[in-house]
User: Fold this.
Amino acid sequence: MRQTCKKLIPTALVSLLCAIAATPAFANPIAINPNQNPTLSGLSGGNVKTPDCGFIAGGPNHTLQITEQIDSMQIRVEAMGGNPTLLIVGPDADERHCAADRPEMPGLWLPGDYNVYVGDLNGEQHSYQIYFE
Assistant:
């Protein structure tokens, strides 16, 4: 029995460490209000294929916390190559918007949490910046 435990513990530890390494680290939520124009950056793409937004990460690249209604704001992605996409899942899980041809999303933003995915149509990974205008 003792020999079996010695063999199982290293195997279990390796499996756990591999699972942790394969799980992307996601940024803390970022509060956005009408008086801010932050710039975010990261790496586009991932290994999850979507039907309309190419390949995205297994979890959001960023989570935006809209603290109060923003009557007009555009979120725009610029990547250092590839074919970037922008997928935003709104506070209501049924709110899912993909911008694949031009990765930008203008409009009215209601308070709540929005998950932002920066994908790539071909599954490539490139550095990107997100602008709020």
